[in-house]
């Protein structure tokens, strides 16, 4: 195009292009926010401002460049086309900025963004050229047009690559300068591609395709002044936009600084050590808790490899862990957490609970390690393990002691059973012989001696019976028969019975009659009361004994109170143990064996009655039994008992392998008028019965027989011969709970040796 350019306006156009490019690239760069995972947050308002700045800079440079052109031909501009050129500059070039800002320079996004921006510059230029109005026809050189397009696209692509590949401001300046050069070069290349040919027809005729009718030049501002005003206004707007962006970034920086300060305050005041390292393993942050834990100052650690905080072999292997993680992505600590060991400045090693989180700053990987000194926890865990081991050892020892105690208890039970059986055998024969002699020596001078012997035998029987009671309770064969009954008659009868015994030793015995009814087993409750009363008589030297029932609200408390020797407070529970006697160091048999209160506690527990004792040494003791009250019922008057007529005697079969007992029992039974078959075994008894051809009225068999057989088996064999079940009694001196339970299950009557003659006579009379 013929003419020349104003150098100052050309320079102004370049300045406008460079400044507009820088403002646009700067806004677009900062519009791209921090990455959130794999997605990027983009400030759309800043990006729109960047597009507007780029479009305004390109358009203003183009317009100032057009005004810088000097020609003899007057030139005006069509407002619509000029406005369209501005919109194209903003829209098309802005699309390129949007593309690269959202996706960062990549293999395909950068060429696309550069092409869009370049086409925005080119389209703005040639649409702006089309808006010129003059008396000439424009024509274009195709090669120069292609060159202008290539320049625009290449410059735009290079500028975007420089501006977005890093965060350095100098590279954005270089990109803006390159973009400005590209825009100016494209503009003046495009101007050089245009040619003007004077019009050959008058105004008003139809123009050729490349001819635009020029309007008459309008009076007003000169081209230089218009260019300066346009450029200045554009620069001012761009400057305001840039200043606004700077202020926004400053506010953002202050907010970021505040967040960093809060983060730093949180990190520094955290009770757990927090260490931040980069992907090379170098420490970039070391909080106060870490200083206290490891003994280093932060200045001694920051910038050095974090392996300095690790003992061997972790110290040497740490960098290999990082490189393997970067290479394979295999997580061993990152994002998982585990227990490790740390090394203090003094070289001491301690256990740590470590969790590591990964994050990124741009393209840099960062790792935050949060640690906790678990020395105290480890010590507590070790203490728990030791305590558990000690507890297990103690449990094993306790089990062993329990097993030993159980073995000792079983041995004691077996010993008592064997001793009781062996003692009862001769004692039983003595009882029978003494009774047989008492009938024959009734008026003989030796009768008193026989009576004394019988009394001694009775005392020995009482002791053996106490042992038997304990064995039966341990065996669980005592089953209470609980019922409602009047307590008064039981107290009256026991008081009347023991009043004579108490008087014989110089004691008084009083009782308070009661109209109360209780729920219990009458026989077992009587056994408890007898033991308590006998115990009171035995340990009271002078004074009296009181028996009565106390009403305590809805409950009843049975009391046996004496004025005896008393019990020390620390011994009130010991007296309920077997064979415990506080005032019988010489083991006087007249004071018992120390089993009475043990039986009381066992029977009370079986019945569900509470037992309590209160005592003052030297002043006496009180034993209290808590009973469950029952609703009183009318007591029917006893009917006159029918007179038992004498019954005929029958045949008694006696089976016992002890010849002495067999002879003594036979002598006693024959003295009573019975016919007796005495045999040492079931076979012998059966043979005798077959010879006699008679059916027995009763069978009396010892439990232990020869050849390991039992009395239960002997009775069963005799039943088989008789063909009918006759009454049977099993005699035993065995206190083994298993033996007692076996006889109970057989259904036969059980008597424990030594059996007194009156008891045996009552049983025989009842069965006859």
Write a concise keyword list for the protein shown above.
seven-stranded mixed sheet, rod-shaped, 20 helices, about 775 residues, alpha+beta, HisK_dim/P_sf, transmembrane, five-stranded antiparallel sheet
Describe the 3D structure:
Helix content is 54%, strand content 18%. The protein is α+β, with helices and mostly antiparallel strands. Strands 15, 16, 17, 18, 19, 20 and 21 form a seven-stranded mixed sheet that branches. A five-stranded antiparallel sheet has the order 11-10-14-13-12. The protein has a five-stranded parallel sheet with strand order 23-22-24-25-26, with helices on both faces. The chain is rod-shaped and about 185 Å long. The N and C termini lie far apart (160 Å).
Straight-line N-to-C gap: 160 Å
Fraction of residues in β-strands: 15-25%
Runs in which pLDDT lies below 50 for 5 or more consecutive residues are: 34-40, 201-221, 585-589, 636-647
Major beta sheet, specifics?
7 strands, mixed
Shape: rod-shaped
Q: How many strands?
A: 26
Rg measurement, Å: 62 Å
The mean pLDDT is 75
Helix percentage? 40-55%
Query: Tally the helices: what do you get?
Result: 20
Class from helix and strand fractions: alpha+beta
Domain Histidine kinase: 418-631
Domain PAS: 259-312
Pfam families: HATPase_c, HisKA, MHYT, PAS, Response_reg
Domain MHYT: 5-197
Question: What's the structural blueprint in terms of helices and strands?
Answer:
Layout: E1 4-5, H1 7-31, E2 32-36, E3 39-42, H2 44-68, E4 69-70, E5 76-77, H3 79-103, H4 109-130, E6 132-133, E7 136-140, H5 142-164, H6 169-193, E8 194-198, E9 211-212, H7 223-269, E10 274-278, E11 283-286, H8 288-294, H9 298-301, H10 314-328, E12 338-343, E13 349-361, E14 364-373, H11 375-440, H12 447-475, E15 483-486, H13 487-504, E16 508-511, E17 517-520, H14 522-538, E18 544-552, E19 555-562, H15 596-607, E20 610-616, E21 620-630, E22 651-655, H16 659-671, E23 675-679, H17 682-692, E24 698-702, H18 711-722, E25 728-732, H19 737-746, E26 749-752, H20 757-767
Parallel strand pairs: 16-18, 22-23, 22-24, 24-25, 25-26
Antiparallel strand pairs: 1-4, 2-3, 5-6, 7-8, 7-9, 10-11, 10-14, 12-13, 13-14, 15-17, 17-21, 18-19, 19-21, 20-21
Helix pairs in contact: 1-2, 1-6, 1-7, 2-3, 2-4, 2-6, 2-7, 3-4, 4-5, 4-6, 5-6, 11-12, 11-16, 12-15, 12-19, 13-14, 14-15, 17-18
Protein name: histidine kinase
Domain Histidine kinase: 418-631
Pfam families: HATPase_c, HisKA, MHYT, PAS, Response_reg
